[in-house]
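Q: Could you fold this chain for me?
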Amino acid sequence: MKHILLVLLILFSHIAFSQSKKDSVYVFFFKSGEAKLKADSLVAFNKFYRKFEKCTQCTFELKGFADSVGNSDANIRLSQKRINYVKTLLTGTSPKQIRELPFGEKLSQSSKLQHYRKVILFVKSTKISAPVENKTTISLSKADTLTPAQKRIREFDQRNRPVRLNILFQVNTTNLTYDSRDDLDLLVQYMTDNPQLKIKLDGHVCCDHNDYILSRNRAVEVMRYLTQRKIDAKRISVEGHGNTKPLVEEIDAATEQVNRRVEVTFLSE
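A: Sure. Below is the predicted structure, expressed as structure tokens.
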């Protein structure tokens, strides 16, 4: 049923959209070998993007993919071209708000190659507190000079609510994907700089198999990564949620991968 729905979306608009409470997600589908879409297929996207067009506190994460036709290097370049095209649609957005992740053909692929010719856009909006004297104004003016890593670190200042990190896993395993290490290393840095801080790690799985043990073991794997880098295990608690808390609607392998994750909650001291 999922595959039938996806094919219909590709045939009529080349674009699929889903939204959750934590993230707004838009999926662009491309034809084989192409990195652009026709203007008449962007009507739904333009409506979706309108509410974020002037959002200075939003971050935009672009994950680009390609099918397995051709060699892997060419497909990495194609997925980057697709990301570059989508960036041109994000009018009014600063380049510093955008995070690019070209994956090429890294996903395990089925016979339906059209499922993998895509860019997934994640939009994360940060709620802004009411101004306090002049400190908030100064902080916001300095934000434009921060590196992407520094901006990521600032997101960790949230307390007692899950923070979505790019900590993902291979199918049915506790094996971290290679690109998860950037956020893991930032987490190590943040906990090292804040030695009294405690965290809770929440593990999740995708798909129809509600495996609480695997989801908890994924959280344990992240804890192991931290403790191997001298973070005290007493500062870390773990919990598995199975597939009960999906981040996005699962329509294909890419969105399933998004739900195979570990989130972190920074606890008030």
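A (continued): DSSP finds eight helices and nine strands in the chain.
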